[in-house]
Design goal:
Layout (H helix, E strand, L loop, with lengths): L6 H21 L3 H5 L6 H18 L3 H8 L3 H17 L1 H17 L5
Helix pairs in contact: 1-3, 1-4, 3-5, 3-6, 4-5, 5-6
């Protein structure tokens, strides 16, 4: 069963939505922009990549699950995760921001920080 009625699919959808919403709020991007099938402007694409990275890191969603939830190809998901991980290594400030966002996302999902 691979529909929203499947509890596992529902939970995956909720988690991806939570990551999208939080990143949209943090970066001042409408959630609808993150859901569009086109790449969009650079700051929108970057916000989407951050949401994908956080959903993978915090919730352990697979590339296949993330591809479905973000309407992207698995190779695009892989690229987003790799790119944001590299950016975190290159910038302590960016890494600190994402660590803070990870904690917020975990608390919002009822997980231990």
């Amino acid at each position: 069963m691979n529909s929203i009625q499947d509890p596992a699919v529902f939970l995956t959808t909720q988690r991806a939505s939570l990551a999208r919403f939080m990143v949209a709020q943090m970066y001042g991007v409408p959630v609808e922009e993150l859901c569009k099938p086109t790449r969009g402007r650079p700051h929108v694409a970057r916000a989407r990549q951050i949401a994908i990275h956080l959903a993978r890191l915090v919730f352990g969603l697979s590339h296949k699950q993330l591809a479905r939830e973000f309407g992207r190809d698995r190779s695009t998901i892989h690229h987003a995760c790799y790119l944001i991980a590299q950016m975190r290594e290159d910038s302590g400030e960016f890494d600190a921001t994402l660590r803070w966002m990870e904690g917020l996302l975990r608390r919002a999902a009822g997980q231990q920080p």
